Request: fold
Amino acid sequence: MTSWIRRVVVLFCSRAWQLGVGAFCLLGVLLCGVSWWLTAPVEKTGAGSTALPPNTVTAAPAASGEHTGTPAGASPAQRQAIEPAAWPETRLEGRPAKELLLKMMQAVDRSFRLVHSYTMTFRKQERINGKLLPEQTYFLKVRQDPFAIYMRGIQPVAGRELIYAEGHYDNQVVGHPVGMARYLVPRLKVPPDHPMILAESRHPMNQAGLGNLIRKLLGFRRMDLEEPEEVTILDRTMTPDGKRWLRSTHIHPQFRPGRPLAQSEILYDPASRLPLRFTGFDWPADGNAEKPLGERYCYDDLDLDAVLSAKDFDPANPEYEFHRF
Reply:
């Protein structure tokens, strides 16, 4: 009798476990199905009135000789007008350094505005809510006007894709996760300053790209002239990989509104004068003299002759992974 009861109990528990697992799996399938059903097909996201206008700029001829930072398609008059200022051979600081750097950044800004679109590898490391995140690497496609950007994760999360195109997709970022999350949430559309984006970035996505960095730096260089106590140092340096750089160091003695960083170091390519390395240090905590690393950005493999079209910023691009199936 005891053996019979034991068999009944075991059978009941086994059946209950099977039913529980089955119900759990069924619930998971239903949740995935509802999520995918509520996600609009990607063809509707990138078609019709939301499609970006075609890129009518033809490929610029390759520049010959040393690259000067002037776009290859610029006219001789434009090239002469945007020639950057000479960099000092020895250390320079004080107001002369500020004036020279401002003049150079104005030339770089004029030059880079002539670039229609470009691609590059972008590496960044940022401190978010007091925690220094690991370095992230992305491949970027950027069009400057109207601003549009495509980002594909390389590491530590490979395959994640994000698209933002000014004036399209409701001015929101279209993205998709990777891994198991892809089965639950096939695609998302959020504002460029959404908490999900700012959880991994100190800046909204519509402020990304080298052109936006140049314009921000130009604004800070104008501020430097109005602040005698701000320290600007120009010199030259070499990174561990043996590459030579022009360098500017900026030190701010005290916190001021509009000064998010206590100190910054910028490395410029000697030929193009483009700021391809940026390191910023946050304001130290009370009673602490150390300035913690706040943000570091590296722009590599820059292709200023890249010809991009609306397809490059369209989630319906068959080369991308925004599709539900």
In short: The domain at 74-313 is CATH 2.50.20.10 (outer membrane lipoprotein receptor (LolB), chain A). Residues 8-12, 27-38, 44-81 have pLDDT under 50 and may be disordered. The radius of gyration is 26 Å. Residues 262 and 283 are 5 Å apart (CA to CA).
